[in-house]
Write a structure and sequence with these properties.
alpha+beta; two-stranded antiparallel sheet; 2 helices; binds iron/sulfur cluster
């Protein structure tokens, strides 16, 4: 199963990831993305779609 990661050095708290994929992301107190479920990508979700949702390239496949 593919996994994703978030590089918090690049995350600018736009919130696009948790708005689009609330099953995969939450937000911390400053609006930065927090991965849920260890970053495991569900089978019905295209990992590349998740990566593309971030305008800061903070989300990567690992
Ligand atoms: S879309 Fe990218 S920059 Fe915005 S909160 Fe999610 S990881 Fe951070």
């Amino acid at each position: 199963m593919p996994r994703i990661a978030v590089d918090h050095d690049y995350c600018q708290a736009h919130g696009r990831c948790y708005a689009r994929f609330p099953e995969l992301f939450d937000a911390d107190d400053e609006g930065r993305a927090v991965l849920l479920g260890g970053g495991a990508v569900p089978e019905n979700v295209d990992p590349e779609e998740i990566v593309a949702v971030c305008p800061e390239s903070a989300i990567t496949l690992v």
